[in-house]
């Protein structure tokens, strides 16, 4: 199955639902919906839905009719009319997000990291990259050392005597802390591509 822009999508199943359009006295329709977990839209109405609800489109008058209900259409991108099925349970995401973020920050104040996964970087050749280090501003030296010691203590970084040396530097954060930065551009040029599909942000 493909979307309107010809993108292939895979259905994980079907679900038959009984729906009732606004207003409440309208008849109940039984429609079979396909489930597509990777789509961003909450719902896309297809031909079976339009046929069941006796929907008609009048592009000359820019009107859509669902049974006895008329909906005005607009070609203005800022004023698209939307025909939606109401949901009895609504979640105020904007109001809950700051609360959830605060809960996570309080529950795990330290830097989170995963220690049960091993990642391997395959190189195009074995010639090491050796770059001279950036100079760290004098007023950042002590804070940078403390940040490195903290990351080493938490097991996020390790000391190495290998033959590779890529650029790294530090910058002052707005809150006064230290942000460590790495310049891996040359390293990336010598790294084999390992394509992996990123999950949809709405699914994660």
Automatic annotation (TrEMBL):
SUPFAM superfamilies associated with the record: DNA/RNA polymerases
Gene3D superfamilies per record: Acid Proteases (2.40.70.10), HIV Type 1 Reverse Transcriptase, subunit A, domain 1 (3.10.10.10)
Keyword Nuclease in annotation: yes
Keywords, sorted A to Z: Endonuclease, Hydrolase, Nuclease, Nucleotidyltransferase, Transferase
Keyword Metal-binding recorded: no
GO MF annotation list: endonuclease activity; nucleotidyltransferase activity
Coiled coil stretches, renumbered: none
UniProt superkingdom: Eukaryota
InterPro entries reported in the protein's UniProt record: DNA/RNA_pol_sf (IPR043502), Peptidase_aspartic_dom_sf (IPR021109), Retrovirus_Pol_polyprotein (IPR050951)
Record's protein name: Transposable element
Organism: Pseudoloma neurophilia
Lineage: Eukaryota, Fungi, Fungi incertae sedis, Microsporidia, Pseudoloma
């Amino acid at each position: 199955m493909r979307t309107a822009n010809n993108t292939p999508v895979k259905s994980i199943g079907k679900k038959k639902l009984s729906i009732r359009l606004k207003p409440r006295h309208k008849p109940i329709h039984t429609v079979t919906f396909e489930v597509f977990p990777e789509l961003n839209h909450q719902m896309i109405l297809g031909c079976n839905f339009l046929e069941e609800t006796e929907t008609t489109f009048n592009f000359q008058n820019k009107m859509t009719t669902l049974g006895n209900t008329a909906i005005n259409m607009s070609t203005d991108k800022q004023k698209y009319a939307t025909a939606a099925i109401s949901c009895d349970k609504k979640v105020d995401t904007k109001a809950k997000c700051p609360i959830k973020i605060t809960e996570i920050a309080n529950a795990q104040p330290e830097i989170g990291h995963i220690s049960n996964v091993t990642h391997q970087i395959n190189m195009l050749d074995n010639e090491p990259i050796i770059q001279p280090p950036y100079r760290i501003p004098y007023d950042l030296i002590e804070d940078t050392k403390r940040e490195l010691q903290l990351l080493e203590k938490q097991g996020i970084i390790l000391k190495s005597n290998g033959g590779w040396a890529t650029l790294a530097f530090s910058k002052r954060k707005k809150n006064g802390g230290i942000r460590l930065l790495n310049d891996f551009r040359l390293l990336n040029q010598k790294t084999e591509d390992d394509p992996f599909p990123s999950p949809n942000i709405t699914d994660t």
